[in-house]
Amino acid sequence: MNALTLERIGHAYFGQAVLADIHLEVGRGEVVALVGPSGSGKSTLIQIAAGLVDAREGRIRRGFSRQAMIFQEPNLMPWATARENIGFALRRAGVARRDRQARIEEAAWLAELEGDDLGKYPVELSGGMRQRVAIARALAVRPDFIFFDEPFTALDVALKRRMQDLVIGAAREAHFAALFITHDLMEAIRIAHRIAVLDVRGRGIAGVRALEGGTGDRNEAEIFALRQRFLETDPLFRHIHDVDERKRR
Amino acid sequence: MKLGPALSDRAGRLLDFLWSGWAGLAALSLLAAAWQAGHEAWGDFILPAPLETVGAAVGLLGDPDSLSLLLITAQRSLTGFAMAAGAGVALGLTAGYAPAVMRLARPLLTVVLGVPPIAWIVLTMMWFGTTGTTVAVAILIAATPVVFVAAAEGIATRDRELGHMAEAFGYGLLGRFLFIDLRQASRPIFPALALALGTSFKVAIMAEMLANAGGVGGALARARALLDVPQALAWVVLSVIALIVVEYGLVRPMEGELERWRRAAQPWGVKR
Ligand SMILES: Nc1ncnc2c1ncn2[C@@H]1O[C@H](COP(=O)(O)OP(=O)(O)O)[C@@H](O)[C@H]1O
Ligand SMILES: [Mg+2]
């Protein structure tokens, strides 16, 4: 069974159709990137998949046992230290109290957080550090599925790269499946096994491209060449380019 | 958390608290000086010396009968306060989640808040006679609205993304309420509780005085009848002290415990 299967998903806000007829599958241990222009309904779709929003239509089949989510904003509890934030979901995940510290340490290590930072409050941490805490919080519950909703969009290029490497490393280490939303094609190519493109107006998945090799196997030159090829020769990615143009305007 | 850092953190907060106490002490000294000047200008009968008043207050504290009056008032205030806090928080949280309730409550609040507390006291006196119930109900009416508004605001202005986050990690309605929403609502609720506590003491004394229901208010009424200014002032001093003890001994420490992270945001905040 797949880790996640979306069938005929449709949704509307206040009578305004946002998504229609979405079919998407994520295999076990597979990372699928979902790209699409701003406002095409990516966040809505991932929220439906994660159970935060009830879809108007369609069926969701979840073949995983524990999910986690990483948002565009870190969404940390400001009143809790990094350590407490990382441990937030452990109670719900049924981890015994005496085991929680070890889980937190483990997750912090995976997210490359220093021991010093764990005692700090979110206000004392930089943007990148906060997102690391959010990643650690997700990893702490040892999920077999992680939802990513443009998690690194707010970060600068260098930091973004390090975060992507971190996710790639964690995916290898922890073997989770993931739905990774982004509108950065480089990011999608770097992280995913397959790339799905959402229709500009959310009317179905416009197409899917499988990438050879595993997550993180491609080097920079290959990634860049692939991106060029997609943008220049593959009609599926025409709209991604449109978005870039629109953004520049 | 290890014991050492936790203790030093707490000690740091205590020092902070004592340091802020200096400012309070300075203000009190100023008040005492003005009081003394007034005493010297108008004489003993109008305004007894501050030291004399404090002496009278200490005298009252030593007298079991007076002490029991003070305890009656404190007990009534705290009972009324607890009721107002409970009702205000419960109703306010509900209204925070239900905008329709809030829309209904707003105009009602304006009316309730527009009526001076003394009017409520007169009404409750006529409804319940001169009993402790009068005092409790008067406090309930006077102190509930501030708590209600604060709790409703706390919920209405909460960061909804945190709720989504909790939901994404599997927390249900109850978990989100307990670990996310309540914690956010506590921020405006605590100052409102401090305010409600003050109102409770004031209304209790007013109600006791008007209803002749004993307690500090009753004692004040007697002092007024006898034109005993030192006695009246001593009671005022005692009731202010009682309020300060409860506020700084109970409400503020609880608030400080919850708002620890805010100190971390300050440049001179907790650096570990
Ligand atoms: N909670 C909501 N209520 C009403 N409309 C919404 C809501 N969330 C998103 N939308 C609308 O749905 C469309 C898709 O939004 P979204 O899923 O956030 O797209 P994306 O993440 O791809 O930018 C947008 O037009 C947006 O304005
Ligand atoms: Mg989005």
From TrEMBL, chain A:
Span of domain ABC transporter: 4-225
Pfam family name, one: ABC_tran
Keyword Transport on entry: yes
Keyword terms: ATP-binding, Nucleotide-binding, Transport
A molecular function (GO) term: ATP binding
Entry similarity comment: Belongs to the ABC transporter superfamily.
This protein's name: ATP-binding cassette domain-containing protein
Automatic annotation (TrEMBL), chain B:
Cellular location(s): Cell membrane
Segments forming domain ABC transmembrane type-1: 70-250
Key words of the record: Cell membrane, Membrane, Transmembrane, Transmembrane helix, Transport
CDD domains: TM_PBP2
Residues passing through the membrane, by range: 17-35, 81-101, 108-129, 135-156, 189-212, 232-251
Keyword Flavoprotein assigned: no
Membrane topology designation: Multi-pass membrane protein
Annotated family: Belongs to the binding-protein-dependent transport system permease family.
Name of the molecule in the record: ABC transporter permease subunit
Source organism (scientific name): Maritimibacter dapengensis
